[in-house]
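Example 9 (inverse folding). The structure is encoded as follows.
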């Protein structure tokens, strides 16, 4: 589901930006993706988002203005998944900068 993909992407980039201070996106790019996510989520109720998406318990009231509190909302098992993706993304960024 596209909504779940966008939630995951926002979680990864919120982690990189707010937790490790190593953003790989511009603010403009983050805002564009956040707008996509909020547009899709607005097509549904908060309850639908909570029940029908993997990270709905984090994003049910997300309005796209900031992601600073998303990491703290995550369950520990989901933090591990997002951390793994974020670390992979940082390695790609590091390798790209070497060339």
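The amino acid assigned to each position is listed next.
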């Amino acid at each position: 589901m596209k909504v779940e993909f966008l939630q995951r992407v926002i979680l990864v980039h919120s982690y990189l930006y707010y937790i490790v201070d190593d953003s790989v996106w511009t603010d403009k790019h983050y805002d564009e993706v956040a707008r996509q996510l909020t547009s899709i989520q607005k097509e549904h109720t908060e309850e639908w988002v909570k029940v029908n998406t993997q990270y709905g318990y984090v994003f049910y009231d997300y309005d796209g203005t900031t992601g600073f509190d998303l990491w703290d909302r995550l369950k520990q098992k989901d933090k591990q998944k997002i951390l793994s993706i974020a670390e992979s993304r940082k390695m790609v960024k590091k390798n790209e900068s070497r060339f």
